[in-house]
Amino acid sequence: MISLGCPDRTGIVATIAGFLAELGGWIVEASYHTDPDTNWFFTRQEVRVDSLELTADELRERFAPVAASLGERTEWRISDTGERQRVVILVSKAAHCLYDLLGRVAAGELDVEVCAVIGNHDGLAAVTQAHGIPFHHVRFPKAGTDETARLAAFDEIRKIVDSHDPHAVVLARFMQVLPMELCAAWAGRAINIHHSFLPSFVGARPYHQAHTRGVKLVGATCHYVTAELDAGPIIEQDVIRVDHTDSIDDMVRKGRDIEKVVLARGLRSHLEDRVLMHGNRTVVF
Amino acid sequence: MISLGCPDRTGIVATIAGFLAELGGWIVEASYHTDPDTNWFFTRQEVRVDSLELTADELRERFAPVAASLGERTEWRISDTGERQRVVILVSKAAHCLYDLLGRVAAGELDVEVCAVIGNHDGLAAVTQAHGIPFHHVRFPKAGTDETARLAAFDEIRKIVDSHDPHAVVLARFMQVLPMELCAAWAGRAINIHHSFLPSFVGARPYHQAHTRGVKLVGATCHYVTAELDAGPIIEQDVIRVDHTDSIDDMVRKGRDIEKVVLARGLRSHLEDRVLMHGNRTVVF
Amino acid sequence: MISLGCPDRTGIVATIAGFLAELGGWIVEASYHTDPDTNWFFTRQEVRVDSLELTADELRERFAPVAASLGERTEWRISDTGERQRVVILVSKAAHCLYDLLGRVAAGELDVEVCAVIGNHDGLAAVTQAHGIPFHHVRFPKAGTDETARLAAFDEIRKIVDSHDPHAVVLARFMQVLPMELCAAWAGRAINIHHSFLPSFVGARPYHQAHTRGVKLVGATCHYVTAELDAGPIIEQDVIRVDHTDSIDDMVRKGRDIEKVVLARGLRSHLEDRVLMHGNRTVVF
Amino acid sequence: MISLGCPDRTGIVATIAGFLAELGGWIVEASYHTDPDTNWFFTRQEVRVDSLELTADELRERFAPVAASLGERTEWRISDTGERQRVVILVSKAAHCLYDLLGRVAAGELDVEVCAVIGNHDGLAAVTQAHGIPFHHVRFPKAGTDETARLAAFDEIRKIVDSHDPHAVVLARFMQVLPMELCAAWAGRAINIHHSFLPSFVGARPYHQAHTRGVKLVGATCHYVTAELDAGPIIEQDVIRVDHTDSIDDMVRKGRDIEKVVLARGLRSHLEDRVLMHGNRTVVF
Q1: B121 lies in the same domain as B244
Q2: Given this model, what pLDDT does residue B119 score?
Q3: CATH code at B16?
Q4: Key word Hydrolase present in the record (chains A, B, C, D) (predicted)?
Q5: For residue D37, what are the domain limits?
Q6: CB contact, 8 Å: A196 with chain B?
């Protein structure tokens, strides 16, 4: 699979398609998009693996000069869809997103290897282990009390995560804010689910905020983690209707169903290499 | 129709239902709600008009002591659904909400009298007059240039509006911010449609803000106008999906379809006396 | 909780509310509806348990003459929301609905006792037992080969189910058609999730049917099981958008997310005694 | 704009993209899809008009051999997006779709020429003429009484329609079934809005059918007209939630909002040449 972004001009499609045609590449799915504001061109080409007689590395080598010919600011990557992707999941107490992801993996819907689940509480250890996945409990100091201990806890998490070199680090209702260093280290791989329709209700207790404001829909947002809280590029969002009969608890319950599907959809798009970032926005092919 | 809010306690339903039963009132639709946070009770009772041998005023007189017995903070109103409701619409240049409302009235779906349309531009005069409705063009100074002239323009609007004593003043993409005096004078009757899913993207150019943030849904909010811009009690909201292929113009176009239905639904709820305000939130029966 | 249906006339609300007020009953949630076509009145009254000094049985005894006074066709039931409800789940091979329900129970969202899971395959035994719930594998003959063996298998299922006297028998993508006797025995308690937006695509392979027809949305329907296949009273439905890029497998995958929430919502409404049947339609308070 | 369908094989994208690149064609929007069931390839290429120094006819001439090289079953068309498209609208009594379409045209959202509106009743003459569009009243005999008169009425309609050679013939809640000859003559151009979520509730009074079945969502379907009633290729569908409080009239009212947007979206897709038919299914780019 080739994902590429470069300044728009005529002939890009012809160049890439010509390159693939020469190699006998059978394009299963091809997507193109031009952003008219920035005049930037995006494409994703999914090629049938048996139509190419090259390894991913050989393909990268052959494609490099083609990409270079499209301008020096061109960004591209080639991923091997044959490779099973590795995922590490960070959790806290809330169970629903973890149950949902593990259920999807167990049912064969999400074909990934969950290498580890890391929790700042141990309440989700049992369900994790029942799926045959190692659970790591990393203790955090009480919020705001001991910054050194907090950073130490994150160091521990980082070691576990990095030991698996995962394609995605999923913050499945992990309630700790990542330090800037980790945001940078995992840029483009750390995915968060926030329980509001961002940019509304950033930060803590978004359902309480939503209830206070009296909104008629609550939502969830799956986004890449960046240094600014809840402000990273959005991959997927959805909402569900609520009304005056819904207490905050009802909103939380209804919202959970949206959180689960929004996270699952966002993660799938990421793992299928369908998401191209462009500044703080995303193209999701 | 009786709408009532009062502190919750046992026996309120029995009291009201007993009152209506004694008069032979045939309840067509009855709604109840208790807000657990504030322990406030809300009800709306729609009674078949031919089952009562009273005028609305007589009913009010009879009901007053019943309401008083429910506590001194009780708020209630009785409206006569037989009376045709009057609406004044404020517009600027954007045509879609006005076309939509007038179409609904013409098609008999919205059974109201549109007494007048007032515009700070005259572009929508022709369509208004084609529906047999008077159009008033009230000129506004360029934004931020002449506060006196702006307030004078609003005085002119106020005179026209108040001469009709309307049940609803609809800001159908009227791009001027109401002065505080008008917000107060029309409290609970001035209804705005804002072209975002509030509280996101308050103020000007919300679709531009939405595009910049890269959201995956755009929305619209129908709310009562209060002194704080775009912060009044929300009556209705909805959203529509957008993606990276949608330019700002596409978002504007898709959003218009949501604005129209959200405004029409919100206005209908208001005119059917289904909306009870409670602080900055609404109960919509 | 009181649920009641009777022919409409004036004074019903007053009668019931008066009855509850006399007992000091604090109404937490009250819903009323009149069906104008059949002139039938429906109500559901949820009363705070600590406001009554009666057991459910005593309340039933006291209410019986009140109900009788509302006409001889009056149907009513009083359920004790303090009692934990029992559920038996029937499954086949598809895992997603079972994972979802068990996840909701484990996370405390659905406060029920899952007494047993019964499968005509044994693939879901492990996940069931991991939740500490007994799994029964009941073998079925190959479809259409041995009617006697099929009915014997259902007899076995019936014995297991009835031994728990469950409030709900959930067919969570159970692929066998219930015999008429079981439909009758479990009337109003057997709940099915059908993977289409009924009445479209009744019967087998609804996603294939949907793909062939080229629809732009796929859906799911939660309904009571009746003798006629996929034709029972509908409790809940929802849909999700698909397009030409979705293969049948994609539709199946997207549809699963809808099946799960529609089943969970429908089951919750049933267990909270919010569903009143009226012919082949439902009132869901 | 080039739309093309042909049997899939390697190199098609390269061929078409190469052709356009050679002409200096700047691709604004390119879409590709392969149907895995039929192994059929679809593409739509929107080229910036000022990047080509050819007329549409010259482009067609140049492209013909390219298309031929992709197999003899290849189907393609080139449309000139610079040309303003012509639309004829057929109506009966229901006003909402016509109001909606005319409002969109008047507001500049839908940039088409509405050449004529034809009604089997004359109730919508005034609003049509207020938009400066000719209205033709063609009388139909009472249903089922006089087949000859019915066909004569359709002959009259056909003459009016064909005199404008329209890009789309829109049946905007036109309640007459087109004769087979007209279905054939206008194949791929006659667009209907059906007021149900097809394939549910084909034919007359779908909201009544929906109410009887007790569905929890009602919908609308925009499709090409074919000889079999309400069975043509679907362009767009959507739904809206209803519940037991909605009478048939309420369903009709809520459904109208869906009909309007579904028709408007479907028509836009058709006019922008985004719809490629494939058997009874559509690819909507």
Answers
A1: yes
A2: 98
A3: 3.30.70.260
A4: yes
A5: 2-78
A6: no
Catalytic residues of D: 230
Taking CA A251 as the corner, what is the angle to CA A247 and CA A254, rounded to the nearest 5 degrees?
Answer: 135
Residue C25 to chain A, least CA–CA distance (Å): 20
If we measure between CA atoms, which residue out of D117, D119, D115, D116 comes closest to residue D139?
D119
Give D-chain residues touching C212 at CB under 8 angstroms.
Answer: 280-281
B159 lies in the same domain as B174: yes
- The span from the CA of B26 to the CA of C81, in Å, is 31
From the list C230, C249, C257, C273, the catalytic residue is C230
A44 lies in the same domain as A123 = no
Indicate the residue of D103, D256, D257 with minimum beta-carbon distance to B99: D103
- Give the count of domains, chain C: 2
Of the residues C17, C49, C78, which one is the last residue of a structural domain?
A: C78
Residues C127-141 pLDDT 10s: 999 999 999 999 999
**pLDDT higher than threshold 80 for residue C81:** no
CATH number of the structural domain spanning residue C105:
3.40.50.170
- Tell me: do A14 and A152 sit in the same domain: no
Instruction: Give the chain B residue whose CA is nearest to the CA of C30.
Output: B32
User: Is residue C238 annotated as a catalytic residue, yes or no?
Assistant: no
Among the candidates B16, B47, B78, a domain finishes at B78
Tell me the per-residue pLDDT of C82-98, one tens digit each, with 9 for 90 and over: 789 999 999 999 999 99
pLDDT of residue D19: 94
pLDDT in tens, A34-69: 998 899 999 999 998 888 889 999 999 999 999 999
Interface check D277 vs C, CB under 8 A: no
How many CB atoms lie under 10 A from the CB of residue B126?
A: 11
Residues D116 and D148 both lie in one domain: yes
pLDDT of B27 strictly over 90: no
Q: Output the six-digit token pair for C273.
A: 């005694």
State the average pLDDT over residues D17-22.
Answer: 91
Same domain, A174 and A203: yes
Against chain C, the chains showing at least 3 CB pairs within 8 Å are A, B, D
pLDDT in tens, B130-173: 999 999 999 999 888 899 999 999 999 999 999 999 999 999 99
In angstroms, the CA C233 to CA C279 distance is: 8
Contact B280 A234 (CB under 8 A): no
Q: Which long-range contacts (CB under 8 A, 24 or more apart) does A177-181 make?
A: A177/A229, A178/A154, A178/A225, A179/A151, A179/A154, A180/A227
Q: Mean pLDDT across chain D, nearest whole number?
A: 94
Q: Is C240 on the interface with D (CB under 8 A)?
A: no
Mutant choice from A198, A244, A275, A282 vs B, greatest count of B C-beta within 10 A: A244
Residues A45 and A169 in one domain: no
Task: Determine contact, residues A190/A178, Cβ cutoff 8 Å.
Answer: yes
Look over chain C and give the mean of its residue pLDDT values, rounded to a whole number.
94
The torsion defined by the Cα of D160, D163, D165 and D166, in degrees rounded to 10, comes to -30
Q: What is the pLDDT of residues A220-257, one digit of tens each?
A: 999 999 999 999 999 999 999 999 999 999 999 999 99
D282 touches chain C (CB under 8 A): yes
The mean pLDDT of D55-75, rounded to a whole number, is 94
Same domain, D168 and D43: no
Angle between helices A56-68 and A12-22 in degrees, nearest 10 = 150
Interface check B281 vs A, CB under 8 A: yes
Chain C residues with beta carbon closer than 8 angstroms to that of D197: 197, 200, 215, 217, 239
Q: Which of D6, D27, D240 to mutate to test the interface with A (most CBs of A within 10 A)?
A: D27
A99 touches chain D (CB under 8 A): no
Q: Please tell me which residue of chain D has the smallest CA distance to B100.
A: D100
Q: Which of D207, D215, D247 to mutate to test the interface with C (most CBs of C within 10 A)?
A: D215
ipTM: 0.93
